[in-house]
Fold each of these.
Amino acid sequence: VRPRIPLRQALADRQLLGGILSGDSWKPWRALLIASMGEALLDDERKLFTALTGREVEPLVPVEEFAAVKGRRAGGSRSASTLAAYIGGLCEHPALVRGERGVLLMIAADQRQADVILDYCEAAFRGSPVLAQLIESRTARELRLTNGIDIEVRAADFRRLRV
Amino acid sequence: MELALIRPPDAEAKSTGSQPAAPKKRKRRGKWTPRPRPLSRASLDGRTAAAKLFDKLAADIATDLGGRDQLSTIEVCLIEGFAGAYVGLANINTKLALGQAIDLGEMSGAISSLVRVAQRLGTSKRIRDITPSLSDYLKAHEQREPVP
């Protein structure tokens, strides 16, 4: 994954993903997402990061795994769908060869939650005229992008889950 | 002041004859026929009232349909056809208003042509999408705020 624009700038730009996680209440999530993409944090963000993770400094490299222990209504779905929109729409994927489609899989607790996450993800694209051009089609379980990425949502099922 | 006639160095040799030899004309083979050149609006000065009306109408329609660069060649030809038919119809209407005799067949033919072309081109204004592509936007963004 090669970012075309840093997540911090994308979240601050209203023509891209700005406005989705705006306001002070979303500051902790913004700090966590920015740190998870390997970007440096500002001092006040680092304090939040330390308070939430117990780590002194952010990783400064993109993380392989980001686990959040959180309660309901904590904004996890919205944050995750924003991150999915960033990785799917604003990052390059040089590992994909021409003609190959990348699958960005989002797994939800159940189908209803999966639908909500995909709605959030689509809204992140539709909210920006620039990003909306990337939407090729939307089905019940998939958001197909013109850059060769399919954002898929599925309900957690250990028997059927295959990428 | 003196004026001197300067002759080229090879002039002496040539001047021995009565007259310098004229270049030979190439003989045309067969019968010469001019190439057909269709009349073009580019060769006209465009100052007549009809030409001005034609140009204004064509330009206005092209603007309504999103600008010249958004139109296909066929659309441009249709627009010119529409403008030409309208200029003719305007001429007929003026004659009618002046109380002169008009050819009703010619008038209805012009109106029918206008309607047919208008149905093809569309009668509403086309919204021009000026949203930059993601690549263009990111390029412009990078120039404003270089990626660290």
Amino acid sequence: MFDLPSLSKKEQLILGLLLGDGVRERFGLEMVEASGGKLKRGTIYVTLQRMEEKGFIESRQEERTAPEIGIPRRLYKATGHGQRVFNAYQLASQAMAANFAG
Amino acid sequence: MQKARPFAEFNEWLNSSLVTLGDHAKELQSIRTSVYWVVKLSTTPEEMVQAQFQQQRLKELDLKYRKLAFIIVRVATRLFIQALSSSLRRESVIRKGPGTRWLAFVEFFYSPKTVELTFKPLIAEWQHEIFEALKEGRTRKVYWISMRHRWYFLKAMGLSELLEAIEKVVGLVKKG
């Protein structure tokens, strides 16, 4: 039997933010601000790590043009696999909603 | 990075104050000499009254001069302490990045992968926010950011530890 990848609500929200307005990269803090309080700063990186391990997202360190100090921040973007899983979950939830409504 | 010079302002102020004080001292000396001769050469009662009046004025000027010198010493001391503390504060900011100790702490307890993917991005955001606040000159905000991020760091530590424990339990249940 096909083992369906699991996607929690937080993971769905993160994928939604990363895929929302075209495929683009976002910082962790940016996603926290865009989520309107649904994502917390203290927990987002734990979730992001788990998602990266599942293959839903990938990350890279930001490029720096000017000499800056401190640790470079990390940019996240959805992978093709992540996009497919997200779309599948969206379709499943729509179908379920239609079934329950009918 | 250009080094800050907190003592430059203090030096400039002290130099100008000492020049002013020197000018006052010269003026006072010349008045003192003229009063000495007025007192020495006065013969008539009117001249003696005039000499007494000038002596009194000399005393007042002398007192003003001492007061001015005292104020300059007090302000100079205060400015020196301010410049010293400011220079020490700036050095401490340059010397260590925020969250460095926390990173060293988690590097000891957590796997390199967790440090790289969970804790380093958290510290990177922490440092980014602090540097932005420093650029805007909002030093009070820096303390708030640090306090907040310490809390987030603790939360991340607790949660990732809990997740690892759950994973281990799930793995053990699956195995046997």
